[in-house]
Amino acid sequence: MPFTPRPYQIDAIKALRDGWTTEKNRLAIVLPTGAGKTVVFSHLAHQMLDNLGGRRALVIAHREELIEQAASKLLAVDPMLRVGIVKAARDDHHDAEVIVASVQTLAVPRRREAIRDIGLIIVDECHHAAAPTYMEVLRHFGAWDGVPTAGFTATMTRTDGGLAEVWQDVVFRMDILDMISDGYLCDVRGKAITVDTLDLNKVKTRGGDLVDGQLGKALEDSGALDAIAKAYTQHASDRPGVVFTPTVATAQGAAAALRAVGIEAAPVWGDMGRDQRRATLARYEAGEVQVLTNCMVLTEGFDAPHTSCVVVARPTKSPGLYVQMVGRGLRPAPGKSDALLLDVMGAASRHRLASMVDLTAREIGEAEEGRSLREVAEEHAATEQRRALAAQISAEEINLFGTSAIRWLRTPEGTWFIRLTGAMFLFLARDPGTRLYRMRRWTEAHGVHSPREDVARPLPEALAWLEQQAQVLAPGAFVSRQARWRLGQPSPKQLGLCRRLGLAVPRGSTAGDVADLIDQARVGSVLGSLLATAA
Q1: pLDDT at 145
Q2: Residue 163, phi then psi, degrees to nearest 5
Q3: Tens digits of per-residue pLDDT, 321-333?
Q4: Whole-number pLDDT of residue 402
Q5: pLDDT digits over 428-476, tens only?
Q6: Per-residue DSSP letters for 394-450?
Q7: Model pTM?
Q8: Nearest Cα to 193, choosing from 312, 325, 356?
Q9: How far apart are CA 94 and CA 460, in angstroms?
Q10: What is the C-alpha to C-alpha distance for residues 131 and 195, in angstroms, rounded to an integer?
Q11: Crossing angle of helices 37-48/64-77, nearest 10°?
């Protein structure tokens, strides 16, 4: 076949087919924009036809572009496949093996009732599927009666759709970071376009997101459209790009602002004439238009891999919508090394707005301007790994030292030591980058020196060896954790020394507690001075 599926696409198909052997039949696949959802379900339909016993496959979509793409990809996978389209005046389903249909057309009872013998249902952009129209269509074709049903989407977070209402399980996910790491998508760098006069606090929320009309007015009143044009010339002057706006007026205004600074731009919107919109998209594909501005019509079904800049001039609280917008710029193309994300935001906002870190399901912390998503994720992973190792070491240390009979103390910087006399202590020095330790001794007369056998040891061995040396060099009562003197009241001398050192003595402290405070402060000061001298 002309289109060979990628390894993860094969895995997604297998996950569906394996899932259908259980009691669940309405299963979803979540793949990032650019991962080839249409390729996956085209191969799925082709493979399943032999197992449907003469029944047919139905692909449901809600936009013309998605319907045409699906039909085209099905034929690319198998040119001999009989593919029919059911949409508006078109009604090519009678001898089709796979029917690609508009959900709006199927919402008409006589149109859907004319289509029979469906043994597989595929829903493109399935995050819409909880809408009443979809539910009615899906129930008619048997999605709640055991017919294998597969949903495909880049996001499963839409408030009027999602897993709980329609889809029984998400059987396969591919994170955008995995796609970037494997070279299937471009990395993305973010830059904020901060418009001080843009006050998003005045924009209300409806249905979980900012109200389009109010948001559009706020953008226009603040001068944000001119700021977008200026930022584009500064940061993306050589990049073909797409601008997402909340209203038709802002899409048209953004295009005008870009043209005013010398960038060829054109707007597209939902009610635009079909021929005019196709002509505008063709001009963008040909390079005659550098930037497309749009009122949320390019979030789905728009495929222009050469796009290397995305401007989110539609601030959103929806991570799903944000992913769909930014995803339009992540497909790889010849000569394209990365994508640039220009994020429009106000000076401050009470709203929790989606940002670049929402492109991935992983916890990666906050993105830093100018750094790519992959760089941020890799640094976060390295930091978490270091934290986990440190926590493991700390837990191990506390367990080891806490159960010892020897009076171990720790400086504020984390160095474990045993105070032997007023003028001598032993401490453990960790070899950098390892979990091995060496014994060191400090005396007031000679400073730090190493033992003859200067060997790096694992922590339990180093601890045992140092304790042995402490018991040889100091009286047991001084280094023992259970020494009777430790239970008495602090002496006036101890308290006077704490005052001179600036140490606060907690109420109820024993002589042993105060001795520990003094030793930690003194040893910490000595080791701190040594480190400063070495630096």
Answers
A1: 94
A2: -60, -45
A3: 888 888 889 999 9
A4: 62
A5: 888 887 878 888 889 988 888 887 778 888 888 888 888 888 888 877 7
A6: HHHHHHHHHT-SB--EE-TTS-EEEEEETTEEEEEEEPTTSSEEEEEEEETTTEEE-
A7: 0.66
A8: 312
A9: 78
A10: 36
A11: 50
Q: What is the pLDDT of residue 177?
A: 85
Report the distance separating Cα 40 and Cα 35, nearest Å.
9
The tokens for 435 are: 């979990």
The amino acid that residue 381 corresponds to is: A
Joined together, the tokens standing for residue 407 give: 């009076």
d(CA 184, CA 176): 9
pLDDT band at 349 (very low <50, low <70, confident <90, very high): low
Task: Give how far Cα 180 sits from Cα of 34, 75, 166, 184, 337, Å.
Answer: 11, 28, 30, 6, 11
* C-beta of residue 71 within 8 angstroms of C-beta of residue 40: no
Phi/psi for 68 (5° steps) reads -65, -40
Q: Which residue has the tokens 């249409």?
A: 38
* Whole-number Å distance between alpha carbons of 422 and 307: 71
Two tokens, residue 493: 């001398």
Handedness of CA 246, 247, 251, 253 (dihedral sign): negative
In the predicted model, is pLDDT for residue 254 greater than 70?
yes
Residues whose CB is less than 8 angstroms from the CB of residue 27 and which lie 6 or more positions away in sequence, other chains included: 15, 16, 19, 20, 149, 150, 151, 167, 168, 169, 170, 171
The percentage of the chain sitting over the pLDDT mark of 70, rounded to a whole number, equals: 89
511, exposed or middle or buried, with CB in 10 Å at 0-12, 13-18, 19+? middle
Q: Please, are residues 349 and 358 in contact by the beta-carbon 8 Å criterion?
A: no
Cα 409 from chain centre: 42
Contact partners, residue 370, CB within 8 Å, separation at least 6: 189, 190, 191
3 state SS of 378: helix
Identify the band that residue 344 occupies on the pLDDT scale cut at 50, 70 and 90: confident
Q: Cα(3)–Cα(74) distance, rounded to whole angstroms?
A: 10
- Count Cα neighbours of 163 within 13 Å in the Cβ-side half-sphere: 12
Amino acid at 526: V
Question: Both tokens of residue 370?
Answer: 């100018």
